[in-house]
Design a protein that fits this description.
Layout: H1 2-7, H2 13-30, H3 32-45, H4 65-115, H5 118-122, H6 126-168, H7 170-177, H8 179-217, H9 219-224, H10 228-261, E1 266-269, E2 275-280, E3 289-293, H11 300-307, E4 319-320, E5 323-324, H12 330-335, E6 337-340, H13 351-355, H14 364-373, H15 377-381, H16 400-413, E7 418-422, H17 430-443, E8 448-452, E9 464-469, E10 472-477, H18 479-485, H19 488-497, E11 502-503, E12 508-509
Parallel strand pairs: 3-8, 3-9, 6-7, 7-8
Antiparallel strand pairs: 1-2, 4-5, 9-10, 11-12
Length: about 525
Amino acid sequence: MVRLFRTYGRADLPWFVVGLVASVLGRLVGLLPPLVLGVAIDATFNDNAPYRLPFVPAAWIPADALGQVWFSVGAILVALTLGVAFSFVTGVGLSTYSNRVQHAVRVEMYATMQRLDTAFFDDKQTGQVMSVLNNDVRNLRSFLDSTLSGGIQLVVSVVAIAAVLFSLNPGLALVTLVAVPLLTAFTVWFRYTIRPMYRALRESVGALNTRLENNISGMEVIKTSTTESYEEARIEEASREYYDRTLSVVKLDSVYQPSMELLVGVSFAYDDGRPVLRDVSFVAEPGQMLALVGPTGAGKSTAAKLLMRLYDVTEGAVRVDGYDVRDVTLDSLRGAIGYVSQDVYLFDGTVRENLLYGAFDATEAEMVAAAEAAEAHEFVSDLPNGYDTRIGERGVKLSGGQRQRLSIARATLRDPAILVLDEATSAVDTETERLIKRALDRLTADRTTLVIAHRLSTVRDADRIVVLEDGRVVEDGTHDALVDDGGLYATLWNVQAGESERTPETGARLETRAEPTDGEN
């Protein structure tokens, strides 16, 4: 506590002192109305009871009964007015100090986290870190704002009441205050009992935040894996644990507080109306590999997401085996599709848990076979605990190529009828691309596959290539035929092959030509 005041908010300490003093004075004046009222009632209805207030000179008190009544009314009004004033000063003072300390602590904690080694974050979940930065710091503010002042007010109340009781009736004071040691012992017990409960509560908050953050970030994986019900159950479990631990703390606190109160075509457009795909039509036959290529922003990934109904078309229809995808259940549709995104998302957990995600009934042999097919088994076997190795949040402990191969294995473990590969090799090195391509050649054989690619070398063997530009189909054919046609695909191919300096996003052709300078022939 001393270190807290010494390190943070030293410049604002006067706010805390003023607020604390005001809270103590407010508690003292709060004792005056019941004391004055009690003395006035005794003096009015008991002729033998003198009108005497502790610590108030007798010369200040009127001698006649009517004067004593008005004195009592005036004293109570003054006490209530002062109570309101002290309450205002307490609120402003303590709130100002606690919020400034909260701000300083949060900024310092974040700065400290930035100085930590990256390995620290490999083993920490985002939800846990956010819980510390938000919940724990907010609890510190609450402690400075109310808990600390409340404890001091309680001590002041006990001392003040004891002083008043001893001045009025020492015998009654002894009988009344005999409970103080018992309440003190009860408070010590309460403190040591509730401390681990609060620690467990903080852990459950972190776990719930982590689960929510994971699921929100990985919503695309959840939807394409048809694991919504599974994740709902996990969220319910995490929320239930938080609820149970909160209830346990509340129950114990509820026992303690009353005890203390004894004293106190397919066309698609996003929401902004901007069309992404315009009258796009193409067909992929069973067992065929169809590739979608084109410049950035042509609508390639959007077409794949329409197939899985991550979005719905605004015009036209997307059909699988002749059925409009809007006429079948999402579970049956997405259960038939394996999706590998360019933005690989792996959940915090083990390799095994990530591979079995969405295929929970798969056997060990099936899991290993999927990993082998995806060229992942070898590197997984080299991990410290093999398939039971924890990979960190978003798979941070793995390389990009390793994450991509696990994503491919996860998608194929479900043995989907349709495989969608969205830029599956866009962010890997050449050697990793070779491994992934070898795996995909195996996995796409005799399987309907939709490939979205920027690197055209990965789709040159596709059965058909559909070229998109500005949301429209501009070319359709095989690699050789499209290169011979000399259109957009040929231009893109030449750019990547190094035979032309044409930027596909703008369509501008860059040429260099040497011209003679003055004096040269």
